[in-house]
Design brief:
The complex is a heterodimer of chains A (about 210) and B (about 160).
Chain A: H1 2-39, H2 48-61, H3 64-67, E1 77-78, E2 83-84, H4 100-103, H5 134-142, H6 152-161, H7 163-166, H8 187-199
Antiparallel strand pairs in A: 1-2
Chain B: E1 2-7, E2 10-15, H1 22-29, E3 48-51, E4 54-57, E5 70-72, H2 74-77, H3 85-92, H4 102-115, H5 121-127, H6 137-157
The chains are: A mainly alpha (about 210), B alpha+beta (about 160).
Chain lengths: ~210, ~160
């Protein structure tokens, strides 16, 4: 009888320690989750309107008119199939007698089919987008250590006003005289979407 | 529209559509026939000239952008009495075969040795992207290296 009583007390003590341990574990887990959520730039609390604006913007930024000049291998891409630039063109290594402006000027040339816009050049290596999905591109774009130290305000101006970016809606004709493909969204809708997304806090939605 | 520029040391003013390729102005208006029309798509390099010292494909360069610029064509690179090192090396290495593409090659090569006084084979491959149907590439490579040597010797001697 006394043996039974002692065992019962032991069990009670064991259960209470197990409960306390479990409680501590849950508290730690919840705290960790809260901290990690508050540090996460991809916070899920994005409004449906802002998320729609994000995807409208990214439908453009993932288009070949943009990504062809954001290569991940220092080789510019060309055409609707994003093939490597003809003639073995690569990003200039040091002094180069042949560069983008040997052929590309500040406007399209409809005689030769060579495209052109002000500041025609490859995006810097830190801004490589080729091979990334839309969420990864957005993260690279918003990262000041990779985006040329641009603030969100700077990015808004760059994305909606820079002539080289807006060239995507006036890409001219190719060497065969065929019109280059336009991005899937009109310039006006794209600009509205960029501004709406940035005004709403430039939150990158969770990857789906 | 009226466009003024300096070409081979002479000031010229032309009155034409600003989008006209500079190559057409050079050949048909200014009657400088040394610069050649090859593909018309900035691919072969036969039309290469210098604008403010940079190698440019003139078939893909609207004349309106030439306003106020300094242009050099093969006629202005050097002359018989005082050839450019590239011209001298081209003669010594007997580079040309049919010769049609050579002015473009020589202009591109002159721009290269101006920026890179001692180009390696790789430098030549990466910068001289012109096309020669006769396949004179091997002799051109030797000539470019010889020209770089002539140029650096002339700098030392002067």
């Amino acid at each position: 009888m006394s043996t039974h009583f002692i065992n019962f007390n032991r069990m009670k003590s064991l259960y209470s320690w197990q409960s306390i341990t479990l409680l501590i574990f849950i508290v730690v887990l919840v705290s960790f989750k809260t901290i990690s959520s508050s540090n996460n730039v991809d916070a899920p609390n994005i409004s449906p309107e802002s998320e729609t604006a994000f995807h409208t913007m990214m439908d453009v930024l993932t288009h070949k008119r943009c990504v062809n000049c954001h290569p991940n291998d220092n080789i510019p891409k060309q055409g609707e199939d994003s093939h490597a630039h003809r003639f073995g063109i690569t990003r200039s290594n040091g002094v180069s007698a042949t560069n983008c402006n040997t052929c590309h000027q500040s406007s399209n040339n409809n005689y030769s089919g060579v495209p052109g816009a002000p500041e025609w050049a490859l995006a810097p290596q830190s801004m490589a987008w080729e091979g990334l999905n839309r969420y990864e591109i957005a993260r690279v774009m918003m990262d000041k250590s990779k985006n040329g130290n641009r603030t969100t305000e700077d990015l808004m101006h760059h994305l909606t006003e820079h002539e080289l970016v807006l060239w995507a809606w006036d890409p001219g004709i190719d060497a065969e005289g065929n019109a280059r493909e336009l991005p899937p969204v009109s310039k006006e809708d794209y600009i509205k979407a960029v501004k709406k997304w940035i005004d709403a806090g430039a939150i990158i939605p969770e990857e789906k | 529209m009226k466009i003024s520029f300096n070409i081979n040391g002479n000031t010229q003013t032309v009155d034409t559509d600003g989008d006209t390729p500079l190559l057409w102005v050079i050949r048909d208006v200014l009657d400088l026939k040394g610069t050649k029309f090859g593909c018309g798509k900035a691919a072969c390099g036969a039309c290469t000239i210098h604008i403010d010292g940079e190698a440019i494909r003139s078939c893909s360069y609207a004349v309106k952008y030439a306003e106020g610029k300094n242009i050099t064509t093969i006629e202005g690179l050097g002359n018989k009495e005082n050839p450019h090192p590239i011209q001298q090396a081209w003669i010594e290495e007997i580079v040309p075969q049919c010769g049609y593409c050579q002015p473009g090659f020589m202009m591109a090569s002159a721009a290269l040795i101006e920026k890179n006084p001692n180009p390696s084979d790789q430098d030549i491959d990466e910068n001289i992207l012109n096309i020669c149907r006769c396949g004179t590439y091997y002799r051109m490579r030797k000539a470019i290296k010889k020209a770089a040597e002539i140029k650096s010797n002339s700098i030392i001697n002067s």
